[in-house]
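Continuing the series of single-chain predictions for the mutant panel. This is the parent chain; the variants come on the following pages.
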Amino acid sequence: MTRQTEGRGRLYDTVLDTVGNTPAIRINRLAPDHVTVYVKAEAFNPGGSVKDRLALNIIEAAEASGALKPGQTVVEATSGNTGIGLAMVCAAKGYPLVITMVETFSVERRRLMRFLGAKVVLTPKEQKGTGMYQKAKELAEKNGWFFARQFETEANADIHEHTTGREIMADFDGQRLDYFVSGFGTGGTVTGVSRVLRRERPETKIILSEPDNAAMVQSGVAQERTEDGEPAASHPAFNPHPIQGWTPDFIPLVLQEALDKGGYDDLLLVGGPESIAASRDLALKEGIFTGISGGATFATALKVAEKAPKGAVILAMLPDTGERYLSTPLFDGIEAEMSEEEIALMRSTPGYQMGG
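Parent structure:
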């Protein structure tokens, strides 16, 4: 049988109209036999990650309210994916963009944002996520720029309630959905989706995950905040971890709604090495390319699957693509040059031999 496509049945006025409607894809080789596992692949967004959704909504909500003026510079603190999403949105709409980012985040993220026209200001690793946040705030206040405030703005969870949650409802209409698994960066995904699931699919258990060496939610220690909900200090339970995009060194205000209102049923911890291994397994055995954060969510989903009853259906969020992790431990051992086995293959036939 030859696969066929028929187009989307519409023409798009702008790249921004292609944000959302990402596919839920069945896992065929890695899932235990007694359950069915799907992943929601957010790499299908035009900027390659789930953060395209909130980036678009933050800008359009600010335009609608008048908080963002034509031609005004936008500034935001980000580990990368929100910055890439904002760079795409700002390029399409004509806003200058300045990003602040901790110096340890991958160089691919910096180059992608700069390629899309953003300026990227790096902050010292010793100051962690709160340092990049404070730098963005300082720049906004000094220059009269629009501070996107992804960690506090209502526009973040709202877009997941109205897009991500609605897509899940449509895709699983008339089907079982026993578990929804998500990590958190800002907390927008789990907060927004939980509003929908609690209201319309209360039987679905929501599983939240965080790094095992940065278990801030599990610690039970409240986040110190300013009156505006901003982080006043680094959370005492935070430690550096390799799951870029997950858990800055504070609990975001956007996540606090889910914590306070029962927006999740269970909290599971996941380690960096198992997250990397899960991402590699998805690539090698399912052909699904995702980053370390996607590997972390999938590894958590497999833990859920182990104890889930027969016939259970699990959906895990995959936040982004793996291409922005080329310089991270995810690609350790993946070389640009030929291996000995590849050289042997090259030499196994007489033609088209490389020199040396």
